[in-house]
TrEMBL record:
<feature type="transmembrane region" description="Helical">
    <location>
        <begin position="20"/>
        <end position="40"/>
    </location>
</feature>
<feature type="transmembrane region" description="Helical">
    <location>
        <begin position="340"/>
        <end position="357"/>
    </location>
</feature>
<feature type="transmembrane region" description="Helical">
    <location>
        <begin position="68"/>
        <end position="86"/>
    </location>
</feature>
<dbReference type="Pfam" id="PF01740">
    <property type="entry name" value="STAS"/>
</dbReference>
<dbReference type="InterPro" id="IPR036513">
    <property type="entry name" value="STAS_dom_sf"/>
</dbReference>
<feature type="transmembrane region" description="Helical">
    <location>
        <begin position="197"/>
        <end position="224"/>
    </location>
</feature>
<feature type="transmembrane region" description="Helical">
    <location>
        <begin position="162"/>
        <end position="185"/>
    </location>
</feature>
<feature type="transmembrane region" description="Helical">
    <location>
        <begin position="244"/>
        <end position="265"/>
    </location>
</feature>
<feature type="transmembrane region" description="Helical">
    <location>
        <begin position="377"/>
        <end position="404"/>
    </location>
</feature>
<dbReference type="InterPro" id="IPR001902">
    <property type="entry name" value="SLC26A/SulP_fam"/>
</dbReference>
<feature type="transmembrane region" description="Helical">
    <location>
        <begin position="92"/>
        <end position="114"/>
    </location>
</feature>
<feature type="transmembrane region" description="Helical">
    <location>
        <begin position="46"/>
        <end position="63"/>
    </location>
</feature>
<keyword id="KW-1133">Transmembrane helix</keyword>
<feature type="transmembrane region" description="Helical">
    <location>
        <begin position="121"/>
        <end position="142"/>
    </location>
</feature>
<keyword id="KW-0472">Membrane</keyword>
<dbReference type="Pfam" id="PF00916">
    <property type="entry name" value="Sulfate_transp"/>
</dbReference>
<feature type="domain" description="STAS">
    <location>
        <begin position="437"/>
        <end position="541"/>
    </location>
</feature>
Length: 598
């Protein structure tokens, strides 16, 4: 048989590969789902429900062939904070609202905007989340008792210090068994699900050698039901919607970022191309449906998606099978999961935190000692010590400010004059003793916008409009202009005109020209004052100066100055005709007075 769309070319061989990969990923997802749920402050079965429902729906409706969806470590601090502040039912409602937002983002094709989030912001908050997850498991690793979980990082660290005397050696042994199994298998047998093997070994050791000495899922949360919960629609009111809109937005944004990053990773591993807007819609549908079965927020899981691909997946069917495998295991083995020690799950989350920390990329960005380093560190610190919402907001604003500053610094305005050797205008030709008192020629380079407008004002002061008879702006290297820069240009134009002078522009590009035409400044400057080439504009400038002022001038800024500085040119006399008469240029219909090539 053959398929269509994302299942194009699908056959029985493809199905067999998807069954293998889906089964492997499903087995890996079970301990992770429970661990993420516990760390998020909810019962472990809710993580399993999310893995099943969201995992299947993301594969069915998403925009990536290989995406594996479910609960992820990135959501832990967000979901825990929402649950602490608003309660479990409101956490479900916030997840559903986030799903609606994700669907709307996909429908209105906003997926591409997520890609504009600066890399230092993403790395910064991801590393911060990793620190929160890792340190959040220290208590379970050490077997500390009587601890109370808080939203604030500092408060949680104080809790560890206050209860360090309750350390449990049996918990540490259990945790070490799990950790060693995970690390050894990752190095020597990477295809074997180390987290699952670690949990099984640690559970066996704890049960055989010190049963009852360590806290387990059963003792902390009760037995895990071997069935899905009944469908239940949360009680949504307008008051709850307004109360939860900010948490829902945070969940939606984080889910969108994580899912599209995972899809990009999958594209790089397979050479396929995902549909970002469809991916957001699929993520939204999954997050709308999962809470109706008690599930928490879900998104694309980078590590599980990569494992899916490495295991031979060829279509979204592998993701669907992964959800089915988790459901079957829930039905058959749920009662045994109650015996898993919490200490055995701590290394699972610690390893997840270590892997997601982006430590190498963090170090690389930090070493650059640039604005990106500042954005990275501030986003990281705010994520750890305040909350993710504030961290991302500040990170984005700071990145935008630094970008504007850097772009503004790229804009350059320099005063120039013709170089007789190259027949081009150059900045080095301008000096105290070599500058035209009546004509100011300025080369502008780079985008001219609000962030660069100050450089325009500093380099071409308004006093230049009074000192020079003609101002010539060479704008061939200005690709963009905004209304702030347009206003400054208008001020300069008015100053030049009020002083009885003339402003000329050469080589202007399409976007700045279009803006000047729409604002009316084009007409104010005058259509005849726009030139394609600098040489033509200089010719016009030379015919607009006061020749009497040129007499005796020693600057010799232009080649015509040898004539202009003599008494051979009279006021009001046509300059070109005079130069032709004196034999300074050859008679030609196309002859120019000065001919810089630019």
């Amino acid at each position: 048989m053959t398929g269509w769309g994302r299942f194009k070319g699908y056959n029985m061989a493809s199905l067999r590969k998807d069954i293998v990969s889906g089964t492997i990923v499903g087995i890996i997802a079970i301990p992770l789902g429970m661990a993420f749920a516990i760390a998020s402050g909810v019962k472990p079965e809710y993580g399993i429900y999310t893995t099943i429902i969201a995992g299947i729906l993301i594969s069915l409706f998403g925009g990536s062939k290989f995406q594996i969806g479910g609960p992820t470590g990135a959501f832990i601090p967000i979901l825990f904070a929402i649950g602490m502040q608003y309660g479990y039912e409101n956490l479900l409602i916030a997840g559903m609202m986030a799903g609606v937002l994700l669907v709307l983002m996909g429908v209105f094709k906003l997926g591409v905007l997520i890609k504009f989030i600066p890399r230092p912001v993403t790395i910064g908050f991801t590393a911060g989340i990793a620190v929160i997850i890792f340190t959040g498991q220290i208590g379970n690793f050490l077997g500390l008792t009587g601890m109370e979980r808080h939203e604030a990082f500092i408060d949680n660290m104080k809790e560890i210090g206050a209860h360090i005397s309750t350390i449990n050696i049996y918990s540490i042994i259990t945790a070490v068994v799990s950790l060693v199994a995970i690390l050894v298998l990752k190095k020597y047998a990477p295809k074997v699900p180390g987290s699952l093997v670690g949990l099984v070994l640690a559970t066996v050791v704890a049960t055989l050698f010190f049963k009852g000495e360590v806290a387990t899922i059963g003792s902390a949360y009760g037995a895990i039901p071997s069935e899905l919960p009944k469908f239940q629609f949360p009680d949504i009111t307008w008051e709850r919607v307004t109360q939860l809109i900010q948490p829902a937005f945070v969940i939606a944004m984080l889910g969108a970022i994580e899912s599209l990053l995972s899809a990009v990773v999958a594209d790089g591993m397979t050479g396929e191309k995902h549909d970002s807007n469809r991916e957001l819609i699929g993520q939204g549908i999954a997050n709308i449906a999962a809470p109706m079965f008690g599930g928490i927020a879900a998104t694309g899981a980078i590590a599980r998606t990569a494992t899916n691909i490495k295991s031979g997946a060829v279509s979204p069917m592998s993701g669907i099978i992964h959800g089915i495998v988790v459901f079957l295991i829930l039905l058959l083995f749920a009662p045994y999961a109650s015996n898993i020690p919490l200490a055995a799950m701590a290394p699972v989350l610690m390893v997840v935190a270590w892997n997601m920390s982006e430590r190498k990329e963090f170090a690389r960005l930090f070493k650059t000692k640039t604005g990106d380093s500042l954005v990275l560190v501030i986003t990281f610190l705010l994520t750890v010590f305040t909350d993710l919402t504030l961290a991302v907001e500040v990170g984005l604003v700071l990145a935008a400010i630094l970008f504007v500053k850097q772009m503004g610094d790229t804009h350059n305005v320099s005063k120039v004059l013709p170089d007789p050797e190259t027949v081009k205008v150059k900045p080095h030709m301008v000096s105290e003793h070599h500058d035209c008192p009546q004509i100011g020629i300025y080369t502008m380079e780079g985008p001219l916008f609000f962030g660069a407008a100050y450089r325009f004002d500093d380099t071409i002061p308004l006093s230049a409009a009074e000192e020079n008879k003609v101002i010539l702006l060479r704008m061939g290297k200005v690709p963009f202009m905004d209304t702030t820069a347009e206003l400054m240009l208008e001020t300069l134009v008015e100053k030049v005109h009020s002083a009885g002078g003339k402003l000329l522009i050469s080589g202007i590009q399409s976007q700045p020209l279009s803006l000047l035409q729409r604002t009316g400044l084009y007409e104010k400057i005058g259509e005849s004052h726009f030139y394609d080439h600098t040489g033509e504009a200089i010719n016009e400038a030379l015919t607009s100066i006061q020749y009497g002022t040129c007499y005796g001038c020693q600057h010799a800024a232009f080649r015509e100055c040898s004539v202009l500085c003599s008494k051979e040119i009279k006021e009001g006399q046509d300059l070109k005709d005079s130069l032709l008469h004196l034999g300074k240029i050859k008679h030609s219909p196309a002859a120019h007075l000065s001919t810089p090539a630019e």
